[in-house]
Amino acid sequence: MALTHNIRLNVNGRPYEVTVRSTDSLLDVLRMQLNITGPKRGCDEGECGCCTVLLDGRAVVSCLVWAPLCDGREVLTVEGLGSPENPHPLQRAFHEHLGTQCGFCTPGMIMAAKALLDQNPTPTRQEVVEALAGNLCRCTGYYKIIEAVLAAAYGDGDPRVNSGSRSVFPGLNRYQW
Predict the structure, then answer these.
(1) Separation CA 64–CA 42 (nearest Å)
(2) pLDDT tens, 90-110?
(3) Are 50 and 139 in contact (CB under 8 A)?
(4) Is residue 12 a contact partner of residue 37, using CB atoms and an 8 Å limit?
(5) What angle do CA 44, 120, 114 make, to 5 degrees?
């Protein structure tokens, strides 16, 4: 039987006190106890990035973070970034640049991009590629996602937004895996 712990955490600017088992992940708490469904359950192994959130400002895959270790911590999910009436610049850029298709990876991509832009507001295309390397997308081929992050950083009119190869991976076109 797993031990239980009472923890306090701040999620998207709201304080919560929850009881967690020692085996619960942060993702379990967010989705099952707090009903915050932006972070997606993908691989449960930290490989896909669908559950990426910011923990004390740092991008983490929440499926690998033990919930008891989150006592007293700050968590930001995609729900805490903006609203439909006032979307965050990354949310707006993903929408305007068609950086989403099925949308499953989008919350994790946006949170990884936010961590990058918080640390480096003027990244190069290569820095964006590297920051998103832990997030898998099966639909878009990454070009539109990278374009959206660069647009959020520089604005739509900047030549860096539409420059570069349409393939993130040399020798691989965007329709191949």
Answers:
(1) 12
(2) 999 999 999 998 999 999 999
(3) no
(4) no
(5) 40
